[in-house]
UniProtKB/TrEMBL annotation:
The keyword Protein transport does not apply. It comes from the Bacteria. This is Flavodoxin domain-containing protein. It holds the Pfam family Flavodoxin_1. InterPro entries: Flavodoxin/NO_synth, Flavoprotein-like_sf. It comes from Halopseudomonas formosensis. Residues 3-145 form the Flavodoxin-like domain. Keywords: Flavoprotein, FMN.
C-alpha cells in the first residue's frame, strides 16, 4: 500500500501534522511519498494507492497560499482519481465561525469531484481547543491506516 501525503499550511502546523503522519504511516508498514510542495504532476507521478491531505484555513475560509496552485490546477486539469481512497485532516479555529476548517473542506470537495473515495470522515483540529494537533491527529490516523489495510 502506497500512500501520498501532502499539505497546505500558512504557519507550518499542517506541514508538521503531515510530517508526523508520514513517519507514523511508514512505521505502520506503508510505503509513503511525502509531497512537499505538492504539484499535480508530482501527485500523478507518485501513482499512489491512496491520498492523505493535511490543510489549514486562512483569511476568510481560504486555502493557504502553499496549496492554492495545486488546488486550481487539479480543478482545471481534473484528472479522475476514481475510487482512490483519501482522507483529509483539516486544521482550523472554531472562533472563525462559519469558515471553520473551510480550507480542508474545499480540498475534500474537490477530491470527491474527481471521484476519489473518502475513507474516513474528515478530521477537524480546532486551534481553540488544542495546542497539540499532532498528538490529537494520531487516533484518527491509526483508524485511517487500519481502514487502508483492511
Ligand atoms: C489570519 C488568519 C485567518 C484564519 N482564518 C481561519 C478561518 O477562516 N477558518 C478557520 O477554521 N481557521 C482560520 N484560521 C486558523 C488557522 O487555520 C489555524 O490556526 C491553523 O491551526 C493554522 O495552521 P497552519 O500553521 O498550518 O497554517 C486563521 C488563522 C489566521 C492567522
Amino acid at each position: 500500500m502506497h500512500l501520498a501525503i501532502f499539505s497546505g499550511s500558512v504557519f507550518g502546523t499542517a506541514d508538521e501534522v503531515a510530517d508526523m503522519a508520514a513517519e507514523r504511516c511508514r512505521a505502520a508498514g506503508l510505503q509513503v511519498t511525502r509531497l512537499k510542495p505538492v504539484t499535480v504532476d508530482a501527485l500523478l507521478a507518485a501513482d499512489a494507492d491512496a491520498l492523505l491531505a493535511c490543510c489549514s484555513t486562512t483569511g476568510m475560509g481560504e486555502l493557504p497560499a502553499s496549496i492554492q496552485d495545486f488546488y486550481y490546477e487539479l480543478q482545471s486539469r481534473f484528472p479522475l482519481l476514481t475510487e482512490k481512497p483519501f482522507g483529509v485532516i483539516a486544521l482550523g479555529d472554531s472562533g472563525y465561525g462559519d469558515t471553520f476548517c473551510q480550507g480542508g473542506e474545499q480540498l475534500r470537495e474537490l477530491l470527491l469531484e474527481v471521484q476519489a473515495r473518502e475513507l474516513l470522515p474528515m478530521l477537524r483540529l480546532d486551534a481553540s481547543e488544542t495546542v497539540t494537533p499532532e498528538e490529537d491527529a494520531k487516533p484518527w490516523l491509526d483508524e485511517f491506516v487500519a481502514a487502508l489495510k483492511g
